[in-house]
Specification:
The protein is mainly α. It folds into two domains: 93 residues, Orthogonal Bundle (Helicase, Ruva Protein, domain 3); 46 residues. Helix content is 61%, strand content 0%. The protein is elongated. The relative contact order is 0.07.
């Protein structure tokens, strides 16, 4: 039975690649602090990988940032103080979800504005096209159109 248990454990460890990024020597002995460290790390961007959190990244810089987060927590910093420390050091880019403030407002407004503008443009073009289909031709215009149909090469 112990062989089966070892096999299941090994398969579980292989399947959970994200948890392998945090090495055992980084893990804090206090479960509450470790939980806080993981929560903070999941919201911080790996500056090497850029689309991964530092909790998921195997990059050396991500490891250094994970250790720094844990050091700050052990020193007594609050979660927000740790985040702010990293933002002060690396800029807003270190946050996976940037904060809403004056210099990130464009990030939050641009996509919905562009989408709304595109939809409005499509709607206006659709209305214009429908209006063009409803144009009534005069008798002279119908005659000219009929003569073109009879004589296509002219």
């Amino acid at each position: 039975m112990s062989r089966l248990r070892a096999l299941v454990l090994a398969m579980g460890l292989l399947a959970s690649g994200a948890t392998m990024a945090v090495s055992p020597d980084e893990v804090l002995s206090d479960p509450a602090l470790e939980s806080r460290a993981r929560a903070i790390s999941e919201g911080l961007r790996c500056l090497v990988c850029q689309n991964q959190s530092i909790d998921d990244s195997d990059a050396d810089l991500a490891r250094d940032l994970r250790v720094l987060v844990r050091e700050r927590l052990v020193a007594g910093d609050s979660d927000e103080a740790v985040r702010q420390f990293l933002v002060d050091r690396y800029g807003e880019f270190v946050l996976l979800n940037p904060r809403v403030n004056n210099h990130t407002l464009l990030l939050w407004i641009a996509a919905p504005t562009l989408l709304g503008g595109g939809l409005a443009t499509l709607w206006l073009l659709g209305r214009r096209r429908r209006r063009d289909d409803d144009v009534v031709l005069s008798a002279e215009e119908r005659a000219a159109l009929a003569s073109l149909d009879e004589n296509p090469g002219a």
